[in-house]
Please model this.
Amino acid sequence: MLTTTVCAALSAAGLAVAFLTAYRRRFAAATRIAALSLVPVGLAMSGLLGMFGKIGGAVAAWASDLVLKPTVWAGFGVLAVALVLYLAGRAAGRRTRARAGGGAGAGRGARRAAEPGASRPALGGEGGQGGGQEGGGRERRPAAGATDADDFSDIEAILKKHGI
Model:
């Protein structure tokens, strides 16, 4: 009964502040204050305030048991051992995948783009896939066995063509 009276008084005071705020033509702030001032009465009328009291009492009882009962400490020890075993199992699983040569993408069918067997892109590659155009206005890339001397000979040919 006393709790309901205190909650009603808090709500009445909040609604008075909301009325004064609305009188100053700050309607958005007044609406927020009115909404918050109705919360204590709503909690008391719905019975949630009593439930929160029971929850608080249960937490306090657990905390006192934590300090005084050794079985609670043993329970935390069991939880710690379970966590360590779980993490060790994950680490061992990663190691076995790494040793098998799979790496992070193993088992998912992922292929690295830099792998020797990786395919060329579907569009814009050599072999007439450039949309029907010969060369497509792009420079040719040297073959896989080309050396730096081949690159420089191409550059020399271009410079001679322009008279440089």
In short: The first helix runs from residue 2 to 23.
